[in-house]
Amino acid sequence: MKKIKGNKFSDLQHLLSIEEIDITLIKDIFKSADKFLKNNQSIEKYKILQGKTVCNLFFENSTRTQTTFEIAAKRLSADVINLDIATSSQSKGESIIDLINNLIAMGVNIFVVRHSKPGVPERIARNIKNKAHIINAGDGNRGHPTQALLDAYTIKSYKKSFDDLKVAIVGDIEHSRVAKSEIIILNKLGVKEVRVIGPESLMPSNISELNVRAFSNMNEGLEDVDAILMLRIQKERMRKDTVPSEKEYFKTYGLNEGRLKIAKNDCIILHPGPINRGVEIETLVADGSQSVILEQVKNGIGIRMAVMEKMTSL
Fold first, then answer.
1. What is d(CA 64, CA 299) in angstroms, rounded to the nearest whole number?
2. Where are the beta strands (DSSP E) in the chain?
3. How far apart are the first and last CA of the chain?
4. Are 120 and 95 in contact (CB under 8 A)?
5. On the CB side of 37, how many CA atoms lie within 13 Å of its CA?
6. pLDDT digit string (tens) for 187-200?
7. What are 8's strand-pairing partners?
8. Dist. CA 237–CA 217, nearest whole Å
9. Handedness of CA 275, 281, 287, 293 (dihedral sign)
10. What's the maximum distance between 2 C-alpha atoms anywhere in the chain?
11. Burial of 67 (0-12, 13-18, 19+ CB in 10 A)
């Protein structure tokens, strides 16, 4: 994939994928997030985006990602537009590029885009006019860069170093944009071993090229791991016959207290949400002492503030 100019340490024009940003920028984003999250209990506002406008363009439903982007932008003093796609001119046949160029003409500076089709944020970035910024908030099953950043940041806050870690990603690897971005960022950060666990029907065909260890047996895959990232079953992106019943899936690949004991004693549990309790994970684990799921949500605000700060430093 041809790189788009601008994804470097001090020059973040767009955030389209984890592949296109280097380790220096990732660590710099983490440092900025530290700054924004250190006084989490206070509602401190920064003037970094004062006079700027951020537009959330979500062509797929979202709770955590859209809301944390909105909170992040407002804490940076931006004006925020949550465009209702259903009532926009898109419903009249206007192209997405025309839609965004019109919004740029109205003064929008940053667009946060989620779309069901892979590659749409990149296509927008290549065709818009002026110097607006595009953030990929999830494109089909391709990638979700800010989720990968916030998950890696969360792991970093609980573990001393990435170097000796074994991290397991469990579930629907094939259809998960989160999994694909996670694999890339964890390898960039030098994680000792990235494991993927799930049925063969939910593994991508190029799994051997992804620098991971693949397991179809849940118990074997969880042995001695430091962090477990559970994934939602992406029913909207798969054939009906891809997996058995939810009950059977949980029996084979659901995370329960018994399976958690196979991992290290201080293993942490992550999940990008929304959680399907009793399908991917049992309630006792999701709400247990080793779960950092709500910490991920909080960290999402700081990471997304950091990303937008880097963009407006141009």
1. 11
2. 7-8, 11-12, 53-58, 79-82, 110-115, 133-139, 166-170, 193-197, 213-215, 227-230, 268-270
3. 24
4. no
5. 22
6. 999 999 999 999 99
7. 11
8. 23
9. negative
10. 57
11. middle
What are the beta bridge partners of residue 167? 194, 227
Neighbour order of strands in the sheet with 213-215: 213-215, 193-197, 166-170, 227-230, 268-270
Strands 7-8 and 11-12: antiparallel
Distances (CA, A) of 194 to 31, 59, 191: 24, 31, 7
Cβ-contact 159, 177 below 8 angstroms: no
The number of beta carbons lying within 10 Å of the beta carbon of residue 34 is 14
Is 291 in a helix, a strand, or coil?
Answer: strand
214-229 pLDDT tens trace? 999 999 999 999 999 9
Q: How far apart are CA 88 and CA 26, in angstroms?
A: 35
Q: CB atoms < 10 A from the CB of 258, how many?
A: 10
- The pTM of the full predicted model, rounded to 2 decimals, is 0.92
